[in-house]
Specification:
heterodimer; A: 613 residues; two-stranded antiparallel ribbon; 26 helices; B: mainly alpha; 3 helices
Chain lengths: 613, 104
């Protein structure tokens, strides 16, 4: 089965091709076709996973392009990390395809929607099985394209178009870093294949400074894609897209691509102490920074978006602190519970046609399945004991403790506290309270089904931590170790998580702590948080402003200097032409006279000079 | 009768040619222009005949040639007048300065 692994991304590609070419004719069948083909990919992935129990690494490559002595290759690399990612991507993608059947059921452009969704799935599956960084980069950009198309899916919404552009440009800034990193890496090692790069690092062919530089450049790419500070601003805006898209792309898979990039090139990061420190510090800062913003946002999807940014920060933090398994583990569990949360949020929006949590004011309680699955997701992300989030977070804390990063550990614990506060704020505001609005529509089975399945995974995924560590260790070598936390740390983490839940309970459900009073006491802090630290405004007033100033300057240079010069040149030639054309009178007699005068001049010349010379 | 020297014929031919040229280049009536061109042709014929008698190697060729020239001039005059008539029918004018279609 594993030798057919390269077929996995092809099925969504076929789906994309068929839907984009003849989607209008297929109409309602388009969704089923996309689900069928994604389902085949999922089954193939399961087959590959079964084979991976005995084979730890499998690579199939073909020569693609030969330039001089250098040969670029294309193919597929299957190792435990890639296998895991394949499973997460194809599984979540399949569920979201099914969910979309209900959510997008009434949309006219359903076939385009499913086409883009298939394109994205193809790109993401291709990304996680790339054997070299060149192929990786191509799929990386394709993933960005899929994301762009889906964020801007509601073409008639100005905000959606803006968000799509913003996402594209912000991630492109990161991609520039990644590309420079790739070029440097290629220059140094003469190869882009993952395995050969790792060999080169092992043999210490690269200078330490160069490794640090390359690692940081690759990390910049990851920062852009995974919405880390300071390139995070596109991710909350990306919530303009349809909610299933937010669940698939901006929560579970694409944003995890950055984390995957760091994980896939982990030996490179391990070889540089500074790169690891930068990764963990940026991760920790993003985690706490986004969590504080999440505390005060009023848009259902935006809170989840900031929570995603924060959780991605956690993963980076774990990777930076040497917690390879912890980071990948959290990526996996997060994919399940965050996709679940988004799908549940989508059901609320679908049924109530409202996503402002203070206006919903508890109306979500009429949706029983949604309420319970959302609760499971919330408990999981808050780190409630025995749910998946608690295990992966503990692994991160343990990795930090082992690495001796006590400051970062404190930040991580405080973020965990904030996470449970804002997630339960969301839960209490949406699903508890007066609940005056009755749902306009019932949530169909094809939407509830995926939610329930994801809820099951959000509960049980945590129990496979040590199996995951063994599994990853099979392919990745010595750094794939799951750190186990001492009892006091487990106790502390649980306490922090429950503390957040209790605090949210008293503020938002019992209302014993008056939030309005707090708002007034810390009004400046509230304003800063509500406006997301004014980062967007900061970019607007510095980078965008100066860029616009330069563009205007160049525009006016073009308009006045360049165009004047052009007008001068063309004007001169035109004037000469006009003058010249006046000589052409059409009077034969004038021509004759001129000819005669010319002849006379020649004769005179000959007479004076006495010959030709 | 051999009192007239070669220079006499040549000067007469020169004068005739210059008058013809002047007429061809300055007159506004196309018929006058055609007549002036005839004048120039005849000046050339006179030259040919003069050289056939007083040239370095006098022979009959010059006179034969001038006969050809006169014949062709007659044909040319006929064609010229015919074109002129066609033009006149189209434009109701024989003024040469109005015929400037070469400009376009």
């Amino acid at each position: 089965m594993i030798s057919f692994a390269w077929l996995i991304p092809l099925f969504p590609l076929i789906s994309f091709m068929v839907l984009i070419l003849s989607g209008k004719k297929l109409k309602n069948a388009s969704g089923y076709l996309a689900i069928l083909l994604t389902g085949i990919s999922f089954l193939l992935t399961i087959g590959v996973l079964l084979d991976l129990r005995t084979i730890t690494e499998f690579e199939v490559i073909w020569p693609w392009l030969t330039v001089g002595e250098i040969e670029f290759q294309a193919g597929a690399l299957i190792n435990p990390l890639n296998g895991l990612m394949l499973f997460v991507v194809s599984f979540v993608s399949l569920l979201i395809h099914i969910y979309s059947l209900g959510y997008m059921g009434e949309d006219d452009r359903k076939s385009s929607y499913f086409a883009y969704l298939s394109l994205f799935t193809f790109a993401m599956l291709g990304l996680v099985m790339s054997p070299n960084l060149l192929q990786f980069y191509m799929f990386w950009e394709l993933v960005g394209l899929g994301s762009f198309l889906l964020i801007g899916f509601y073409l008639y919404k100005e905000s959606a178009k803006k968000a799509a552009r913003k996402a594209f440009i912000m991630t492109r800034i990161g991609d520039a870093g990644l590309l420079i990193g790739l070029i440097l890496l290629f220059w140094q090692t003469k190869t882009l294949s993952f395995l050969e790069i790792f060999q080169a690092i092992e043999q210490q062919k690269l200078a330490p400074g160069m490794i640090t530089l390359i690692a940081i450049l690759l990390f910049i790419g990851a920062v852009g894609k995974s919405g880390q500070f300071p390139l995070h601003t596109w991710l909350p805006d990306a919530m303009e897209g349809p909610t299933p898209v937010s669940a698939l792309i901006h929560a579970a898979t694409m944003v995890a691509a950055g984390v995957y990039l760091v994980a896939a090139t982990y030996p490179l990061f391990l070889a540089s102490e500074w790169a690891l420190i930068i990764v963990s510090v940026i991760g920790a800062f993003t985690a706490i920074f986004a969590a504080t913003i999440g505390l005060v946002q009023d848009d259902l999807k935006r809170v989840l978006a900031y929570s995603t940014v924060s959780q991605l920060g956690y993963m980076m933090l774990a990777l930076g602190a040497g917690g390879y398994v912890a980071g990948v583990f959290h990526l996996t569990t997060h994919a399940f519970f965050k996709a679940l949360l988004f799908l549940a949020a989508g059901s609320v929006i679908f049924a109530l046609k409202n996503q402002h949590i203070k206006q919903i004011a508890g109306s979500g309680k009429h949706l029983a399945v949604t309420k319970w699955t959302f609760l499971i997701g919330t408990l999981a992300i808050s780190g409630f004991p025995l749910l998946s989030g608690s295990f992966s977070k503990e692994a991160i804390f343990a990795a930090l403790l082992e690495d001796g990063q006590y400051g970062l550990l404190a930040v991580a614990l405080f973020t965990a506290f904030l996470t449970s506060v804002y997630m339960f704020r969301l839960y209490f505001l949406v699903f508890h309270g007066k609940g005056e609005d009755k749902p306009e529509r019932t949530v169909p089975l094809c939407m509830n089904g995926p939610m329930v399945i994801l809820a099951v995974f959000a509960v049980i995924a945590g129990f496979f931590g040590s199996q995951l560590a063994d599994w990853l260790a099979g392919g990745q070598g010595s750094f794939a170790v799951l750190h186990h936390s001492p009892t006091w740390l487990i106790f502390l983490a649980t306490l922090v998580s429950l503390g957040g839940i209790v605090l949210a309970y008293y503020i938002y459900l019992r209302k014993q702590i008056n939030q309005e009073e707090w708002k007034e006491t810390f009004s400046s802090t509230y304003t800063i948080l509500y406006n997301k630290y004014f980062i967007d405004e900061f970019y607007e007033n510095t980078i965008l402003y100066s860029t616009r100033a330069i563009s205007y300057l160049i525009f006016y240079i073009e308009k006045y200097v360049v165009e004047t010069a052009m007008a001068f040149v063309s004007g001169t030639i035109k004037a000469i032409g006009t003058r010249g054309s006046r000589l052409q009178t059409g009077q034969v007699q004038t021509y004759g006279t001129v000819a005669l005068l010319g002849l006379a001049a020649i004769v005179l010349f000959f007479v004076v000079k006495g010959g030709y010379m | 009768m051999s009192a007239v020297p070669a220079q006499g014929y040549l000067i007469l031919a020169l004068i005739l040619f210059c008058i013809g040229l002047f007429g061809a280049l300055t007159k506004r009536n196309t018929i006058i222009v055609l007549i002036s061109i005839e004048l120039m042709l005849n000046a050339v014929n006179l030259n040919l005949v003069a050289f056939s008698k007083y040239g370095i190697h006098p022979n009959i060729t010059g006179q034969v040639f001038s006969l050809f020239s006169i014949t062709i001039a007659a044909a040319e005059a006929a064609v010229g007048i015919a074109i002129l008539l066609a033009l006149y029918r189209n434009r109701r004018s024989v003024q040469i300065n109005e015929m400037d279609t070469l400009k376009h």
